[in-house]
Amino acid sequence: MIEQISIYILACLIMCLTIGSVLFFYMADAKQDHGEEILKTESELMKEHKIRTPVEIYCNPWILIPMVYGIKNKKILLPTEEYTRNELRIILLHELIHIKHKDIC
């Protein structure tokens, strides 16, 4: 029983370290110099949905899908591409709702 728990804890630790190292790689190329439209949309959505947790948004050319990460300091990582206002609104709303519901993976 104790051996099984130890193996489970070790597997979780390896998974966390792997995810952490991958995110570290992504953040190495991430840039926070996104357009005014992203900040404006983020601010509107946060007010609209009463999200008070501070959030930083980064863009990265290496990722394929938007994601949220961070336990204490929440960050949204977006693929570097052009979005329509509606696409941006939907993407940011989806990620902000994860933050509001305190979803972590």
Protein model, in words:
- This protein is an alpha+beta fold.
- It contains three helices and three strands.
- A three-stranded mixed β-sheet has the order 1-3-2, sandwiched between helices.
- Strand 2 and strand 3 (74-79) form a beta hairpin.
- Helix 2 crosses helix 3 (85-100).
- The chain is elongated and about 55 Å long.
- The two termini are 26 Å apart.
Percent strand: 5-15%
End-to-end CA span: 26 Å
Average pLDDT number: 83
Residues in helices, as a percent range: 40-55%
Secondary structure blueprint with pairings:
Layout: H1 2-28, H2 36-48, E1 55-60, E2 67-69, E3 74-79, H3 85-100
Parallel strand pairs: 1-3
Antiparallel strand pairs: 2-3
Provide a concise account of the structure shown.
With 105 residues, this protein is of the alpha+beta class.
Key terms:
about 100 residues; three-stranded mixed β-sheet; about 55% helix; elongated
